[in-house]
Design a protein that fits this description.
With about 240 residues, the chain is mainly alpha-helical. The protein is about 60% helix and about 10% strand. It folds into 2 domains: about 110 residues, no CATH class; about 80 residues. It binds zinc ion. The site of zinc ion has 7 residues, from loops.
Length: about 240
């Protein structure tokens, strides 16, 4: 699979111009932050928090830049206190990579899509509830209107009361319709069949892209940042 192009194309891939712009930006960043090594960048740089004190852990590199280490050294560097904890990045990165690939494996994606479908069913039930309430409101409006139209116009007092009833029914119907619209607008977009196809496609692509020799450490970092907010590390023993 190494280095091969993705099997299915989709609109989610960036165009060539964007790719070139990204590469250019990355080169600039590398020049600006010389501490970040070219090939050996730790996967979770900037994402790791300390499970002991809750602070961000920094990523340090040894001399040749190939061995990375996540360290909680804020106390030590700020107050000359003790080093909280540190761990080699390699085993942590390997574990998190495995978890990321597991999460976007086709079978995990199928589970997520099934959950989305269950939510869709629930939404359908809520929709049915709204439909009944809206129909009830329409019925009440029609009834109030018929009563008003049936009254003898000479009987002005009754006519005025029935007209007010009709207006009140119309107002209730309008309020209900507005509430319904607001509810609809707050609902997340539903996945179309096309969306699902793209998601399944990417689930097959990403694991092979992840392992491809053409994929850079920076690419993997980007994927991880899309999927994870943070990683909390607590070191036990050695
Ligand atoms: Zn700490």
């Amino acid at each position: 699979m190494d280095g091969t192009a993705p099997k299915c194309s989709s609109s989610l891939y960036i165009d060539w111009k964007t790719y070139e712009r990204n590469q250019d930006q990355m080169a600039k960043n590398r020049a600006r932050y010389p501490g970040v090594p070219r090939g050996g960048a730790a996967l979770l740089s900037g994402l790791v928090s300390c499970g002991v004190c809750g602070r961000k852990m920094v990523t340090g590199y040894n001399d040749d830049g190939r061995e990375a280490r996540y360290s909680c050294s804020w106390e030590a560097t700020t107050y000359g206190g003790r080093h909280c904890q540190s761990i080699s990045a390699r085993p942590v990165d390997a574990r998190v990579s495995a978890l990321v690939l597991e999460a976007i494996s086709p079978s995990a994606i199928e589970v997520s899509l099934q959950v989305a479908e269950d939510i869709e069913l629930e939404r359908q039930q809520i929709h049915d509830g709204w439909k009944q309430r809206l129909e009830r409101a329409d019925y009440e409006i029609a009834l109030a209107r018929r009563r008003y139209e049936a009254v003898d116009p000479d009987n002005r007092l009754v006519a005025r009361t029935l007209e007010k009833d009709w207006e009140a029914a119309l107002a209730r119907g309008q309020t209900l319709a507005d509430d319904h619209q607001r509810t609809l607008s707050q609902q997340p977009e539903r996945l179309t069949e096309e969306d699902k196809k793209i998601i399944r496609c990417l689930a097959e692509d990403v694991p092979s892209l992840w392992k491809a020799t053409s994929t850079t450490a920076r690419d993997r970092q980007t994927i991880v940042r899309i999927m994870l907010d943070r990683v909390v590390i607590q070191v036990f023993g050695e």
